[in-house]
Amino acid sequence: MEEVVNIINAKVWLRRKLTEAGISIVGDRIAKVGKDSNLLKANRVFDAGGRVVLPGFIDVHTHLRDFELSYKEDFSSGTAAAVAGGFTLVLDMPNNRPPTTTPEVLKARIQKAEGKLYCDVGFYATPKSPDQVRDLANSGCIAMKIYMARSLDGEKYSTEKEIFDLIKATSSFGITLSIHAEDSKMIRKVGDAPSPNLHAKAHPVKAEENAIEMAINATRRSHGKVNICHVSSLNGLSKIKRAKEDGVDVTCEATPHHTILTNEVFQKFGKIAIVEPPLRSKKHTEAILKGISDGDVDILATDHAPHTLEEKEKAQPGFPGLEIALPVFFTLVKDGLLPLHRVVDAFTIKPARRFSLDYSGEIDVGRTANFTIIDLKGEKRIDQENFFSKAKFSPFNGMVVKAGVYATFIRGKEIFLNGEIVSPAGVGKVIHGKICR
Fold first, then answer.
1. Which residues of 323-362 are buried (b: 16+ CB within 10 A; e: fewer)?
2. What is d(CA 428, CA 211) in angstroms, rounded to the nearest whole number?
3. In angstroms, rounded to a whole number, what is the distance separating the alpha carbons of residues 107 and 85?
4. What value does the mean pLDDT take over residues 95-105?
5. From residue 371, how far is each of 23, 275, 294, 413, 430 by CA, in Å?
């Protein structure tokens, strides 16, 4: 007989609104949702204490590192950070060492991750050419990712024709192609360890706008589908919005840092705040915030990118994001700056649908029992020293937030509870993409 677990005394996210209800879990699936008094007879009861129970959060943009970069982050530390941040499933980016550009490397990452995960993980890959798409898909990747401004392993996708050819291949197999959209022709060379301002000037807004336009045009012509990563500019988002209105199958994601941090934080945090695309001026953050509120931004993502402090001094772009994203975005909800349903949808049902993550994204009978339980009472300061990630730095350090993660359930089991990891690694699984015939 499988164990029955009841979650009671909760506000549950059902059909895009909060409802006082309980959940019965049998094995790893949701068996019943209803009044506490009508739940199944349980072996164990979890009292949510009146907190909000949401579908398990999904991050489609995580850099878990490992392999030769395990000194920055490894599969265990990265997924520990994920569950501490309320994420039950993350998608790992391909710019690793060695990069995830061949079936052999992809299979090796999947094999190494098994048994080391606190949450579920799906893997991106970058095809060296369009004819590699089928083999990579059949080797287990969930989605594919390209960097228009650089090459990971000899590939080149910096022109509209090159992107068009790849989208034709990925879309023919139903695979979503995610794009880091910066026009390589517009990114200027800088010396070693540039200042944050110099780095930002080398990655101008126009580079993102041009790249987004190229990606949209290629998608329109190919009748394919793409996802634009970490949109950071007013005009870039406007181009995406207009393309959707024209029927182009394009989605976009936004990060917490491009939503609320401006380039003014360079003065306080220096090279810690270097990221690509760079932090922009206030008019751009206001546009991203409005885009989330209006639904023009489809997905919220962390772009969790751990480095060592020595690497940050050398201007390596990126910083950890898994443990700050939920508190930051739900603080914006509490402050009346974002609608609750937009934030929940963008962390759950929308990424699940875009990346064909079956049984995820909603609370309903038959779905996987992955839950993010949040506490919306009280305030605290973000403390980088308490991160589960190996990267203990953040341009959000010291920010007062009004929400936090109370518990994270993976397949019906508490993995993170009240500030602690309460399960050994291994409950998380590798999620494979569909086989392409």
1. bbbbbbbbbbbeeeebebebbbbbbbbbbbbbbebebbbb
2. 36
3. 27
4. 98
5. 11, 30, 26, 9, 18
Q: What is the pLDDT of residues 8-20, one digit of tens each?
A: 999 999 989 999 9
Joined together, the tokens standing for residue 1 give 């007989």
Joined tokens for residue 66: 């490992």
Q: Quick one: what percent of the chain has pLDDT higher than 90?
A: 95
Eight-class DSSP state of 118: S
Cβ count within 10 A of residue 95: 19
Rounded CA-CA distance 253/180 in Å is: 11
Q: Nearest CA to 341 among 99, 150, 55?
A: 55
Q: Of 15, 34, 21, 10, which Cα lies nearest the Cα of 363?
A: 15
Tokens of 356: 């064909």
The answer, yes or no, to whether the previous bond of 277 is cis (omega within 30 of 0) is yes
Q: Chain-centre distance of CA 142, in angstroms? A: 13
Q: What's the rounded Cα separation, in Å, for the pair 366 and 29?
A: 6
Overall size of the chain counted in residues: 437
- List of domains in the chain: 4-53+366-423 (2.30.40.10), 57-354 (3.20.20.140)
* Residue/partner pairs of 199-205 with CB below 8 Å, 24 or more apart: 199/274, 199/278, 199/315, 199/317, 200/263, 200/266, 200/278, 200/279, 200/280, 203/276, 203/277, 203/278, 205/233, 205/235, 205/236, 205/280, 205/284
Q: How confident is the model at residue 437 (pLDDT cuts 50, 70, 90)?
A: low
Q: Which residues are annotated as catalytic?
A: 303
Helix residue ranges, H only, 129-226: 133-138, 160-172, 196-202, 205-222
- How far is the C-alpha of 227 from the C-alpha of 179, rounded, in Å? 6
* Cβ proximity of 89 and 120 under 8 Å: yes
Token pair listed for 146: 């390209």
Q: What is the mean pLDDT of residues 280-308?
A: 98
Element (H, E) at 110: helix 103-113
